[in-house]
Please model this.
Amino acid sequence: MTRNYLDPDPLAAEMDVVHGESRPMAMEHAICNAFGFGGVNASVIFKRFEG
Model:
């Protein structure tokens, strides 16, 4: 969901912008990247638990 998106731009009408509420999506994996000063970088990947 795009926060603070209250006034859509008519020139960007062809863009698929999600606003107002989140869009349901079936996801199996998610990734989070973190970038810091001096080249300190980290990534973590999560997989849905099936138990």
In short: The chain is about 0% helix and 25% strand. The chain has a mean pLDDT of 87. Residues 26-51 form one domain. The beta strands are 29-35, 41-47.
